[in-house]
Amino acid sequence: MGDPRKQKKLYRRPRRIWSTDQLNAELYIMGSYGLRNKRELWSAQTEVARIRNQARALLAATTEVRAEKEKRLLNFLSRIGLAKEGTTLDDILNLKVEDLLERRLQTIIMKRSGAKSPYRARQIVSHGHVSIGNRKINRPGYIVRTDEEGQILVHVEVAAPSTPEGAAATPAS
Q: In 3D, which of 97, 96, 98, 103 has the Cα closest to residue 81?
């Protein structure tokens, strides 16, 4: 069974991690969403693959088994914002890792608060300046449910940098 104090890996790394196309694609996604390391990206990719595998297995299942499990999967995905009303299993097979990364708290804060970069949004979240309802959340990778989206509060003012106090903006002569 394994030691309960040691958690198992929540991701699978790609088979060929040194291919140029793979490296460029991963670097672009990491920069766009402000991920800390490749492990965060790989864990999101593994989660999307798990969801797609469930949908693929349901498509191959018999109709009586499929009906209940399909409804459960679609309810779960609509709760976390990955599926809209009237989504089918074929639409779930088209899920991309970017769809899941868009639901991270860090990405939502970046888009809502006007943070200049995803790394600034990550800092705001991890320093504890964000709450959902009355809970303080300090995990940038927290997947925000659709019912929690309206309850997100940022407790720090994010503004564009201006001239420091006392420093007058003088025109160049």
A: 103
**Residue pLDDT, tens place only, 30-70:** 999 999 999 999 999 999 999 999 999 999 999 988 989 99
Rounded Cα gap, residues 73 and 55, in angstroms: 8
Q: How far apart are CA 50 and CA 66, in angstroms?
A: 17
Paired strand residues for 104: 143
Nearest residue to 135 via CA among 115, 121, 118, 155: 155
Percent of the chain with pLDDT over 70: 90
